[in-house]
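Pipeline run #58 for the internal structure catalog. This entry was flagged by the ingest filter as a single-chain record with no existing model, so it goes straight to prediction. Upstream metadata was stripped on purpose; only the residue string is passed forward. Reviewer on rotation: M.T. Logging verbosity set to normal.
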Amino acid sequence: MEKISTQKEWISRAQEVFPAGGFGNFDPSVFIKEGRGSRIWDENGNEYVDFLIGSGPMLLGHGHPEVLEAILDQIPIGMTFFTNNSAGVELAEEICRAVTCAEQVRYVTSGSEADMYAIRLARAFTGKSKILKFEGGYHGMCSEAQMSLAPKHLANFPQAVPDSAGIPNSVESDVQIAPFNDNDFLRSFLGEHGNNLAAIILEPLQRQIPPEPGFLETVRDLCSKHNIILIFDEIVTGFRLAYGGAQEYYNVVPDICTLGKIIGGGFPLAAVVGRKEIMQHFDKSKVGDDRFLMQLGTLSGNPVAAVAGLKTLEVLRRENSFNKMQRDGKRIMKIFDKYLANLGVPYQLLGHPTLFDFVFREEKVLNYRDFLDSDSIQYNKFNDCLRQNRLFKAPGKTYISAVLSEEDIDLTEVAISNSVKELV
């Protein structure tokens, strides 16, 4: 194969073989060649402090030596078997110890799969088909999840709006939409329609919008009152906000939760976890043919991902990484505050110290429509400036890793300061 030395050449080649020139995940003009610790390098050799961290899974940074050792020990003796393996059992045991709602585990390979099966599991358990999600909440790529994810044309609640082509019209009738952080709407709606719902699915921290005090507790109480399965999508927050995830951090326990990203240590692995009486619908011998939920996957629970996840969780526990990440995140949020104030325009920081972002809006952001009403033009300009100044983050999120150094934080301050100057 000929040697390709520039990002421009890779972009040209990608445009020939990929729709829209990319994998569909990120700006297709960006090609990352290498990652080490808290830094990444693109194909032109530009170095960045990495606040994307693979969209979340690289909590210990790129190429953590202990994770690499575990992977390299496993690869020569088997990469996948399509059968049970001991590492997968050990990882499931650790998940059950750490996550309050987890009595049993079923592996899949992506967060989208996990959310799809969690919804299907709730339907199997309750015998009902309708679900409720919150406008702006992201739950992967299944048809239900793509309803009112980021609607440009806002409908009256609880009407669902499809955000993708290829979704059958029939899906709309089975998905109800509510505004995040609105207790009154939820009480009123469930008072009339709660008996028809199989599940409510939500991100406890919706993108970067935190729950108002008492909101998650209200959702939990209403689900219990109306016999609705509560699903926490913890693909992002699991093993990040705390070792036991958002349900530990907020002290609200769902019936089912979905996990991903961190539990695979950088490899494809996700899981549906929950109470035994619900999870038994994956076991035909317990529920019979009619109530059995079929699920299988070629790479589900593969041993390479399992050992990477096990070692990642071990390091997080041993090094008490959560305290460090929260300290570092708070410092970086203060740096954003320090320099954004110089822009002379309204802004606010949203989220949790380990996962946050900024929006340009004066009024408090409580839900998707508030977020939609922020200044996206100013936001995009600032985000572009940050990348040009070698701070690498996704639109919408700043992921904090456990391996940020003092030098990283100093470089982050320089990048933020320079970016603000370019916008003033």
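catalog note: The chain has a mean pLDDT of 96.
catalog note: The chain has 15 helices and 14 strands.
status: ready for reviewer M.T.
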